[in-house]
Each structure stands twice: as C-alpha cells, then as structure tokens.
Write a structure and sequence with these properties.
35% of the residues are buried. The protein is globular. It folds into two domains: 88 residues, Rossmann fold (3-Layer(aba) Sandwich), CATH 3.40.50.10090; 144 residues, Rossmann fold. α3 runs parallel beside α4 and α8 runs parallel beside α9. 37% of the residues lie in helices and 21% in strands. The strands form two sheets. It has a six-stranded mixed sheet. Strands 2-1-9-10-11 form a five-stranded parallel sheet. By secondary structure, the protein is an alpha/beta fold. It has ten helices and eleven strands.
Length: 262
C-alpha cells in the first residue's frame, strides 16, 4: 500500500521511516509549513512570567519546539516549572525532549478515545486552581488577524472551561503556519494519489484546506484517507474524499489501521 504522509516536514521523518520499515511505500507531501514567529516579544514575555502560570498547555509538538527554542539564555535552570499539558503523545514526547520532567507533564492516557483538548481537560480539571492563569502555546496562520490566537478547534473551548473553573487563559503564538508551495511534480503525485488507491494520512483540518487550495479542481471521490480526529475526518468528507477512516495520532494505531485496510 502506498501511504501519503501530510505532516509538516520536520515531523514526517519518523512516520515515513516507521511505515517503510513495516513494508509500506510512503510518499511525504507536507500540507503545512511551519516557522518561527516574526515578533518574539510575546514569547519572551511569557518566559518572564513562566513561574507565575499554574500550567502551560501546548497544542502541538511544534508549539513545544518553537516555544522552548525561544527560552532566554539567562533563564534560571532551577526556576519553578509549571505543569505542562499536552493533548497527545507527540506533544508529550516533545516536552520530554525539551527537558521537562515527565512528572510535570499531563496528557490523555494511552487508552483515551481521542487525543484532544476535551480528553486533556478530563485529565487536568481536578488540579485547576482558581485565580491563577494557564498559558496556551499555539501557532497562527501567517495571514491571520492579531486576535486569531484566541481561536482554534479546542483552544477557545479549553479557555471557556478554565474561566468556568475560576482560572484564566493567556494565549501566546510561538510559531507560524502557512500553505506549502508545491512544485509541478508534487502536484502530479497528489493528483495520481487521488485516484490510484493510495491512503492519505491527515492530522490537521488546515492541511486538508491547504490541499483544496493547491489542487482546486481535483476530484477526490475515488480517494481514501485516515484522519486522526472526527473534526479532521469531517473536513476530508467535506472536500469529497470517498473513503474516510479514523485512527489515533500514534504510529501503532496508524499501522493497525493500515493492516485493517490492506
């Protein structure tokens, strides 16, 4: 089976290697490009307040990497570390790689039905302290308005839960997202993969929206995909994908899905 990995380039290598090791033909066609924000002042300000937050919620592994890449050189090694919240195993792993002790990380259990803000909230709601802020570290589209950091699937929902619990949310944008610029060969490969039985793997609704922008006239009725969340699955259906399956955003779950579809 040929599998199309659409994750950002920096996140795709481990997935490509694991799928190839399992005997699949793999093609990486990143549907999102990520990079640092142009204005780091809000991130630096968040670091100055680091010990004041009761927790910091990271929406993705990219949020972890770019936020910690901006950690000031003079940051005290022994400074108080707030709880760090992750929505899934990839973000949890990125926090460990950034040097956050595992005992300081909260994320949905491996047996959670979904890895998202709702599942995370079930894990952390009992520890939330009224009157103390929670930092939400996320990305933003390059053409977004300044208040767009307050929006995003699950992020504003989590902020509402925090407010209801007497706490507050402070957003900071640590990285920027943009649609990739594909060369003619990539467009041809994607068009072929829409009709030849290849299995697309989607971990972002925005990536699917970018695919629509890149190939606006493509018909997807013969295409099939695996999505890592119901909202992503619905976006794929809205684009016209003929077959949409679900899998958790982890390599073991993806491999299990591929075996069932083979």
């Amino acid at each position: 089976m040929r599998v199309i990995i659409t994750r950002p380039a920096a996140d795709s290598h481990a997935w490509v290697d694991a799928l190839q090791a399992a005997g699949h033909q793999v093609l990486a066609l990143p549907l999102i490009e990520v990079g640092p924000v142009k204005h780091l002042k809000p991130v630096v300000q968040a670091w100055t307040q680091w010990s004041e937050f009761q927790a910091a919620m990271f929406v993705s592994a990219q949020a972890v990497r770019y936020f910690f890449d901006s950690q000031p050189d003079q940051f005290a090694a022994g400074a108080s570390v707030p709880r760090c919240w992750a929505t899934g195993p990839g973000t949890h792993k990125a926090l460990l790689q950034a040097g956050v002790p595992d005992a300081c990380i909260d994320s949905p259990g491996a047996d959670a039905s979904q890895f998202d803000s709702e599942a995370l909230w079930q894990r952390v709601r009992s520890q939330v302290q009224a009157g103390k802020p929670v930092l939400i570290v996320r990305g933003q589209d390059v053409d977004s308005q300044p208040d767009a950091a307050l929006k995003g699937s699950g992020r504003d929902w989590l902020a509402q839960q925090l407010q209801a619990a007497g706490a507050s949310a402070q957003f900071v944008v640590a990285y920027e997202r943009r649609a990739p610029v594909w060369v003619a060969e990539q467009k041809a490969q994607a068009s072929e993969a829409a009709m030849d039985g290849s299995l697309w793997c989607f971990s972002s609704s925005q990536g699917i929206e970018n695919l629509k922008l890149i190939l606006p006239t493509q018909i997807w009725a013969q295409a099939r995909c695996v999505a890592t969340h119901p909202r992503i699955a619905q976006t794929a259906k809205d684009l016209g994908f003929g077959e949409v399956q679900m899998a958790k955003p982890s390599l073991p779950d993806l491999l299990a899905s591929l075996e069932s579809l083979a």
